[in-house]
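Structure, all two chains, one model.
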Amino acid sequence: EAQVTQNPRYLITVTGKKLTVTCSQNMNHEYMSWYRQDPGLGLRQIYYSMNVEVTDKGDVPEGYKVSRKEKRNFPLILESPSPNQTSLYFCASSLNRGVNEKLFFGSGTQLSVL
Amino acid sequence: GNSVTQMEGPVTLSEEAFLTINCTYTATGYPSLFWYVQYPGEGLQLLLKATKADDKGSNKGFEATYRKETTSFHLEKGSVQVSDSAVYFCALWNQAGTALIFGKGTTLSVSS
């Protein structure tokens, strides 16, 4: 089944403790992206990747890192999480970059930073 | 740059009522327009899309028409069901094709 898989679904951590949210797609997609969803703010892009070893900042990259060593995986790394990074995170992928492409989303990771 | 504005909810309807969720856009050129839906506890999934002016996208009884004259892409359904309760997002890609830009989402709640 074609899908984007994120793990974990729920994560509670403390300020400053490094964490990684994994994302994997099985559709051989070139483009992958991370979004965060916050009440009243909607979805905002954190980082995106056009292909292996090609990543770039989105609208809200501060405090996050990503890597794209393999085509299928695009982990999101929080080196020193802070409470303002408490949010619902989504990984997404598409065959190619826009403008007509359909984005496939993972089920989300609810992160709480205490 | 490209942007999208949609009515914010919540929208509360009774089963079988008519639904309209308004969406207007600003864009360079004529990019594809999308409606995504997020059911409780799930990720977003594509509901429908339209790729050019006057195109009508449709799926699961929902429809939206790409209107160039009014720069709108309103979502409609003639008879909503309880199972339609979800958050609906209007979206389009930015000009560079590097980010899908979303409206803030409209929460629909349908009661029986």
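The interface with chain B takes residues 4, 33, 40-43, 45, 48, 50, 56, 58-59, 90, 92, 97-103, 105-108 of chain A (CB under 8 Å).
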